[in-house]
Amino acid sequence: MKNNNKSLNGNKTTASTIHMGIDPGVIIKILLKRWYVFVFFMVLSFVAARYYIGHTMPVYRVATSVLIFEDEGNSGSDNDELLKGLGLPGGMRNLENQIKILASRELTERALKRLRFEEDFYYKTVRNDISLYPNSPIKLVYEGKNPLPRNVEFHVEYLGNNDFRLFSEVQNINITSSFGKIIKFPDGNFRIDCINKQWFREFEGYNVSFVVRSLDRLVKYFNGRMSVNVLTRSGSILEISISGTNQTQDVDFLNELTAVFQDISLEKKNMEANRRIQFIDNQLVGIRDSLVLTENQLSQFRSSNRVMDLSAQGQAIITQVTRLENEKARLRLEANYYDYLADYLEKDAVGELPMVPISMGIEDPGLNNLVSELGSLQEQMSGEGGGEKNPLQSLLNQRVAKRKAELLETLNGLQRANKLAMQENNDRIAKINSQAAALPVTERQMLGIERKFKLNDELYTFLLQKMSELQMQKASNRPDNEVVDPASVMYSQMIAPNSTMIYFIAIFLGGVIPMLFFYLFFALNNRVREEDITRFGDLPIMGSIPHIKGNSFTEIFDNPESVVAEAYRLVRSKLQFVTKETKNPLILVTSAMPGDGKTLTSINLSAVYSLLGKNTVLVGFDLRNPKFANAFDLNNEVGVSTFLIGKHSVDEIIQETFHSNLSVISSGPVPPNPSELAASSKTQVLFEKLKERFDYIIVDSAPIGLISDTHHLTTHVDTVLMVARINKTLKDMMGHALQECMASNEHVSLLINDSNANNKKYGYGKKYGYINGQTKRKKK
Question: What are the transmembrane regions (predicted)?
Fold first, then answer.
């Protein structure tokens, strides 16, 4: 027999062309066939999304913007160089400090203390708690402090008229009372006033619930929802936003928060101004007493000595002395400030900023710069968190220590210079006083008194002027920030639920979930499906046999006009085409696994050949599992096994059936060595003798995927018909069986068994088909 590994369409088939992995194309075809499942899931997801949107509380975002004024005192200092070294411009550092202040617990706590948010009134629906702020139908009035336990839920049930029931499941409280009537609790008394009875009529069946929140929980609640961001990188405007279900409450909170933010900034400036004013006032106390005393002394001296004015020489002396005394007063003021600054550095005050020298009338550029930079660094440290773990905090600590050391060194030098200047001033005053010794006694005494008076008067005037300047500065103080856009309900934005995104996700999941399910189901399913047939390389497909009801092996004889019979006739036609050049073809029928239908196929295939008038013999070579004896009611004591062991001849093992042109050779008794018998030379002898006597020889063999017996037969037959049963045969077993067959016989074809009865396409390639041609008889 001529060997050529050709399929019906002429394409060469090898074992390497068999692919049993996951084919995306096949999966896509499977999914497209089940399009209705996708439609169902998408509709279901859409309905679920619509329900979710309709029963979810909307979340609104409200915002306010604040302009932060630049800190002029910090501009131009080497703090900017420090911050630039960290990748942060000086202005941005100031903004970050302000952001931390705005998001701080202290600021939120101060804002909440001004608002009455601890009393949270709401009513319950099936899924949500609907806030009643700011229009709660009831209010709580306390006699003294609030006696209600914190974070405990209470319910008010309206009973009609003016009565209600107050109850709490947590506290096991159940009180019936009237609106406006005192309710006594262990920690105090309170009453519940009804503001709007109409609400209870409109929302009949609903109770008013309320919780008195603790301040800690309120702060966490609002801080957790709030965010502070810089609107633009180059600008100095901060946006404070908060998201929640009650936009009115959030608007009130943000506006109060910015008000407190401004108050804190102004309080800080006023506190600094008060410290400077207090310093000047302390100086004025002593000067004021001295001025009154010297004024009285001068008046009494003039009155008692009847002297009104000094001589020209005395006037010249007092002018010089007064100038030197003023200089001495200035030096004394500087010394007092130096003492204050030394005390500040010694006690290492945290959070307290030093007074700038220029505000005290001390004009020393170097000292002014050092004190200003130290104050700026101290302010940054108070706004920076994280302790030593924060790299910027560590750098600031180093810079503060360095500035303090530099300032202390400068201060020591200034104090020494001040003492020298004071000593020089005293020497000059003493020299001029020696000139006054030449004056008459009376004039000399008056000169001393008038000198002290003018000194105190000018010093007092100077301090009053400084006091006035500081008070004017305090009066002109303004916050370091300004509200640009107050929060408003009108400009709130609904951010959730995002209907468009939810619908998109729902439809997406409605498509992905069934796709993933089907993909996993079919990818993990190792059984052969009809869609997998085209993946067995270019092997010719002889046909597809529909599902046969019942346990009959002889469907062809029992129902010759059935769809199954027509399917086997189609298989016969295609096999005739494959074996047309072979005389008396010998066809081996096998499968990958037991139960795939190879015996059923062998019997019915031999039946259709016999019905064609061909002398056909059916050989049972499944020596381990004989079945033909029962199917045809034959004697199984003789058969293939007895021939192979030499017990019977060919004529003795051939048994006739009740069907014309069909003979059967049963398997015979089960031998102890079936594989060795199949591999013996007598197998070839048996096949040669049968080819001499019959037109077609159909051999039913054992499953090649599990048993080695069939491997010895494939080299003796003209063609191998591999039976694959839909949703039964394992893919890997099928691929292995095909490779085994093709390794020893080039003429291998497929037969699909137990296919979908509704699928009326049978054949080979990608369009194997047979249309049921059974004609229905009309009823008369």
Answer: 35-53, 501-522
| 750 neighbors 542 (Cβ within 8 angstroms) | yes
**Averaged over 196-203, what is the pLDDT?**
93
Q: Residue 87: is its pLDDT beyond 70? A: no
pLDDT range class, residue 437, cuts 50, 70, 90: low
Residue of 604, 594, 613, 612 lying closest to 632 (CA atoms):
604
**Other beta carbons within 10 Å of 706:** 16
3-state helix/strand/coil string of 722-733: EEEECCCCEHHH
Give the C-alpha separation, 519 to 766, whole Å: 22
What are the residue boundaries of the structural domains of the chain, listed by start? 79-262, 270-484, 536-755
End-to-end C-alpha distance for the chain, whole angstroms: 55
Please compute the mean of the pLDDT values over residues 336-363 and round it to a whole number. Answer: 70
Secondary structure class of 773 (helix, strand, coil): coil
Which of 197, 149, 206, 154 has the alpha carbon at shortest distance from 175?
154
Residue 191 CB neighbours (<10 A): 16
Q: Give Cβ neighbours of residue 423 (< 8 Å, ≥ 6 apart).
A: none
Check if the beta carbon of residue 249 is closer than 8 Å to that of residue 221: no
The pTM for the full model equals 0.60
Supply the DSSP string of 335-389, one letter for each residue: HHHHHHHHHHHHHT-SSPPPPPGGGGT---HHHHHHHHHHHHHHHHHHH--SGGG
With tokens 């077993």, the residue in question is 733
CATH classification (class only), 536-755 = alpha beta
Distance between CA atoms of 631 and 214, rounded to whole angstroms?
Answer: 88
Residue 497 preceded by cis peptide, ω within 30: yes
Three-state secondary-structure class, residue 20: coil
Identify any residues that bridge with 68 across adjacent strands, giving them in sequence order: 481
Whose tokens are 């019915």? That residue is: 604
Average pLDDT over residues 403-414: 85
User: Across all residues in the chain, what is the average pLDDT?
Assistant: 82
Place of tokens 């084919």: 23
User: pLDDT digits over 43-86, tens only?
Assistant: 999 999 999 999 999 999 999 999 998 755 444 444 444 334 33
Asked if 119 and 215 touch (Cβ cutoff 8 Å), the reply is no
Work out whether strand 173-178 and strand 163-168 pair parallel, antiparallel, or are unpaired. antiparallel
Distance CA 392, CA 638 (A): 100
What is the residue type of 697? I
pLDDT tens figures, 565-575? 899 999 999 99
Distance CA 710, CA 517 (A): 39
Question: Average pLDDT for residues 220-248, to the nearest whole number?
Answer: 93
Mean pLDDT score, 33-42: 90
Tell me the CB-side half-sphere exposure of residue 719, using CA atoms within 13 A.
32
Q: Contact, 658 vs 672, CB < 8 A?
A: no
Q: Which two tokens stand for residue 702?
A: 């054992």
The pLDDT score that the predictor gives to residue 397 is 79
280-296 average pLDDT score: 81
Q: Which two tokens stand for residue 251?
A: 């608007």
